Amino acid sequence: QMYVGTTTRGFNIFPPSDQVAHILRKRNGLLDDDVWGLLEDKKHRLWFGTFSGANIITPDQKIYSLIPNPNDRNSNRIDPIIQTGPDQFILAGDISGLILIDELKHTIEKIGLKEGLPSSDLFNLFEDSQGLIWIGTLNSGLILFDPQKRTMRLLNKAFGLSSNHVTQVIEDPSGKFWISTFGGIDLLDLKENTIRSYTIAEGLSDDRPSSILLDKKTRLWVTSEKGLNLLDPAKKTNTIFSIASGMPGNGVYSLLDINERIFAGTEKGLTVLEESEKPLNGSSEIIWNLRTYGRPQGFYFLNFNGNTADITHTGTFWWGIIEGVTVADSTVFSQDPKTSPVQVTGLDIMGKQQFFIEPELVKDADTLWGENKDTFYLKGNFNVLNTDRQRGIEWDSLSSGFIPENLSLPPNLNYIRFHFSDKLPQSNGDYKYTYILDGVDDKWSPVTAEPVSENYNNISPGYYSFRVSAKKGAGPWAEPSVYHFRIRPPWWFSWWTELGYLLIFIGALRLWVRYRSRRLLKENVLLEQKVTDRTTALSTSLENLRQTQSQLIQAEKMASLGELTAGIAHEIQNPLNFVNNFSEVNTELIEEMNKAMDQGDIPEVKEILKDVEMNMSKITFHGKRADAIVKGMLLHSRASSGQKTPTDVNALADEYLRLSYHGLRARDKSFNAQFSMDFDESLKPVMLVQQDIGRVLLNLFNNAFYSVTEKKKTAPESYQPTVTVSTKKKNDMIEIKIRDNGQGVPKKVIDKIFQPFFTTKPAGQGTGLGLSLSYDIVTKEHGGKIDLITKENEFTEFIIELPVKPVM
Question: Model pTM greater than 0.70?
Answer without folding.
Answer: no
